[in-house]
Amino acid sequence: MQQAVEMLLKWEAKDPETIQLWKTMNGWVYDGFTSTYKRMGVDFEKLYYESETYLLGKEEVIRGVENGAFFKKEDGSVWVDLTGDGLDQKVLLRSGGTSVYMTQDIGTAILRFRDFPKIGRQVYTVGNEQEYHFKVLFLILAKLGYSWAKECYHLSYGMVDLPTGKMKSREGTVVDADDLMEEMASEAEKQTRELGKIEDMSDQEIKDLSEMVGLGALKFFLLKVDPKKRMMFDPNESIQLQGHTGPFIQYTHARIKAILRKAASLGIEAKADDLINVNTLEPAEREALFLINSYTNKLQEAAKEYSPAVIANYAYDLAKEYNQFYQSIPIFNESDPAKLKFRIAFSQVVADTIKKAMSLLGIQVPERM
Which DSSP string do the residues of 2-40 spell out, in sequence order? Predict the structure, then answer.
């Protein structure tokens, strides 16, 4: 521990050897992050590094001591007393003057509002084991006089369990994201080949489709559960084409696209007007149309509840309703031209809505599957 403290002091003093070692090790980490995020389809508008925010955090802590918001102990360490808020005392600077996580988070929060003054709220998406940390952070920011502190929100998500037990990094049972993505893509490719509907696809097209389905399965299974709840992630269940899964929704979208291609080959052109030119609707059509009309409300509900699960379950419900329609009403057996055009236009709207909803979850949907 003493060696670690000494190294931190050297780092903050910009000791060349320490800085070079730190940059080398960080380079390995950032390269790994970049690779993983790219495959997962995750990107960021701006990155904040603790090494760039801790100085501002230290300045703010010192200012807090000067205005009486914080206090120094005999050993020179700086603390905040939150006992009046039902918490306890929290260290903000160590006795040697070095920063802690809280110091860095103070600086980062302030920089974000400076860089993006029009944002209405900062949402911290961090596991529920950090609930106390963020309660303290928001109280500290308020004590420093920042009115926007009350608009900071911790989206505290539940832990993820595996069929074999909870993922715990300290016990070596944590799942590597890269390994999991590779496993999901491989399983998707295996199932795709077994279905035997890809004879005319190139190896690259099969690989791209497998990646889309595998990552879609992974993302959907994680996002369909309310983020605040603890959940069980079962890789095998998540990849199934039937059930409450991402591949089921993706397959529904691909099925609709096949219907639209057939309609085009038959010279059937359907437009938005065709959706209002039918006087009678089958129950399956009515239910799906009701869901389509509720899309905006679902978006608002998801935003209000900070829950992607609302969108995930909406997409599943819409896909399920369309499949019931598809099973009960043979589209191309319809002799009434108006009803036929309605069903083609209706299918197009369902496909578009599924694609929009899934894209909000970072999930792509295939044209063929």
Answer: HHHHHHHHHHHTT-HHHHHHHHHHHHHHHHHHHHHHHHH
Q: pLDDT (tens digit, 9 = 90+) per residue, 177-227?
A: 888 899 899 999 988 888 777 778 888 999 999 999 999 999 999 999 998
CA distances from 188 to 20, 126, 218 (A): 43, 29, 11
**Directed axis angle between helix 295-305 and helix 337-360, to 10°?**
10
Distance of CA 295 to the CA centre of its chain: 19
Three-state secondary structure readout of 233-279: CCHHHHCCCCCCCHHHHHHHHHHHHHHHHHHHHCCCCCCHHHHCCCC
Q: Is 220:231 a contact under the CB 8 Å cutoff?
A: no
* pLDDT at 163 exceeding the cut of 80: no
CA distance 323 to 341: 18
The pTM of this model reads: 0.86
Burial of 268 (0-12, 13-18, 19+ CB in 10 A): middle
